[in-house]
Design goal:
Layout lengths: L7 E2 L4 E6 L3 H14 L3 E7 H7 L7 E7 L1 H10 L9 E7 L5 E6 L1 H8 L6 H17 L1
Antiparallel strand pairs: 1-2, 2-6, 3-4, 4-5, 5-6
Length: 138
């Protein structure tokens, strides 16, 4: 698969978009935007750092887990299985060629997966604007 073919939404519901900066710099910008918008950053998991501590090599890869309990809790109360995909997550990663990407679950995929009403989509759709803002900042 060429690097350019990664962009877009695939049948598995994952959206992947290219970043002009490295994965770690892009993750830093995403974290700053999460905090600036008053969202809660629940975790920033450094997969490549964990791999290095285990003596394994892997390109930079970090998962940011974030959300707003006031928005997510009602959704999980209405549809408990939504907790499988909440809080929201964005993966910042680099491929073998050193190109950086951001990947996340498409809101429409989450809606279909959990049978969510349209009223629950606004908090989930916020991930798209957040990723777009991080990419513009890079």
């Amino acid at each position: 698969m060429s690097a350019d073919s990664k962009e877009g939404t695939h049948d598995n519901g994952v959206v992947t978009v290219a970043s002009t900066q490295g994965a770690l710099a892009t993750a830093d910008k995403l974290e700053a935007l999460i905090r600036a918008r008053g969202l809660t950053l629940f975790a920033r998991i450094d997969f490549s750092g964990d791999a290095a501590r285990a003596g394994l090599a892997m390109p930079p890869s970090q998962l940011l887990v974030f959300g707003n309990p006031q928005a997510g809790t009602p959704l999980m109360q209405a549809v408990p299985t939504a907790a499988l995909d909440l809080p929201l997550k964005v993966l910042a990663w680099e491929d073998a060629d050193g190109r950086a990407w951001l990947s996340y679950n498409a809101p429409d995929y989450l809606r279909a997966r959990h049978g969510l009403d349209a009223g629950f989509m606004k908090p989930l759709s916020g991930v798209v604007a957040l990723v777009e803002a991080a990419l513009k900042a890079s």
